[in-house]
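ligand=flavin-adenine dinucleotide
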Amino acid sequence: MPTAHVVGAGIAGLSAALALAEAGWQVIVWEMARHAGGRCRSYHDATLGCRIDNGNHLVLSGNRSVAAYLARAGAPGALVAAPAAHFPFVDLASGARWAVRINDGPLPWWPLAAARRPAGVGLGAFARSLPLLWAGAGATIADAVRPAGPALTRFWEPMSLAVMNLPPALASARLMRATVIEAWRDGRLCRPLFAPHGLGPALVEPALGALARHGATVRFGAQVKGLAASGRRVEALAVGGETVPLGPGDAVVLAVPPARMNALWPEARAPEEASSILNAHFRLAAPVAGPPLLGVTSARTQWIFVKGEVVSLTISAAGFVEGADTEENALLATLWAETRAALGLPPAVAPVAARLVHERRATFLQTPANAARRAQPLTALANLVLAGDHVATGLPATIEGAARSGETAARLLGSPGSQGHAASGSAG
Ligand SMILES: Cc1cc2nc3c(=O)[nH]c(=O)nc-3n(C[C@H](O)[C@H](O)[C@H](O)COP(=O)(O)OP(=O)(O)OC[C@H]3O[C@@H](n4cnc5c(N)ncnc54)[C@H](O)[C@@H]3O)c2cc1C
């Protein structure tokens, strides 16, 4: 049976592998790390003494490729939806608290109701956000949402940081619009989804289990170092010191981050500039009460995730946040003070352990210029397809984008024996 070689076991690679296995391919996944999940994983942290996620991940109920991925993994209920699309916020400078409450249904009327909008943001200010819907390819979110004011600082900025991992002045309006259209327009589609036992148990382990049931092989500690091509086909992979020849019907999906993609397939010219994300994890002596997700403004902290006795917070686009590079203990003290104020915790509640995790290459820098440079999934080689959150999906670099790219790569390769995308004519 023809073999599909998937390089990279992040969400994009796992998504491609699941869809290819379902289509009847023999699948081999090559992963250089000792674990799957890539930028979306859980691990045991020795400092905290418990299992944590490398970073808090916000996934939404309208993320249809994530839903398809979980269905293929045999774990459709692994992520649990909040009962409503309500996003509570606190502004630490003024003490104001509000919730953005997105209504269910095809007509987004929620901005008409003051109680559903951010505090201090009038309907007129919101209406001036509409140009985001027809922003040009060169526009940033801040270009589209003018003039700058509370609608920008209390709504678009937290959303831009969460979705685009960039402040509105830099983030591509077009990519943000894709998320607004796919999810934020209807409360049924933008309920936050939570992984009750972490990202690994929800998104990674079920996929590995399903691949094993399909008879797929996942090889860890196996770095693909090169592709050998002849004519219009990949003929072999260099894996470690080994050469893995490809049969005539075999295919390759490269599902690796930009720099590694460019090293393996220079024609991709994937955007290598990156934006970082800083997460602080606080382990407490006992679980605390609080909303599972709380947005914070006028602070370094942007989003707080309460997970029982572990409280984790996110600083997206950390390279652009003043003070995010402060010495670790001083930064942890500041972030804990903000967290305590935001959650209204008494002074006696203090962390028993704390940890900063800085993912320096969390996503590619999603400016309009880099968005225009994303690699297309099809290549000049008939049996080589590209995937990954940085590939041109039309979506931001997110779990949904990664899952979509893997799904697309599998669709482009078609069924085993179709001799690759060029021969099958499925380039659309
Ligand atoms: C801290 C943090 C917070 C985030 N928050 C969110 C969020 O709230 N919501 C959201 O939707 N997204 C979020 N993201 C983004 C999301 O995690 C990524 O978009 C997604 O995980 C990317 O998946 P991927 O498969 O494209 O890439 P990766 O996860 O990077 O996977 C690529 C895999 O390829 C492997 N690899 C690389 N080179 C080779 C090689 N030569 N041979 C073999 N294997 C190789 C790597 O080891 C890796 O496992 C966040 C990311 C981070 C880091």
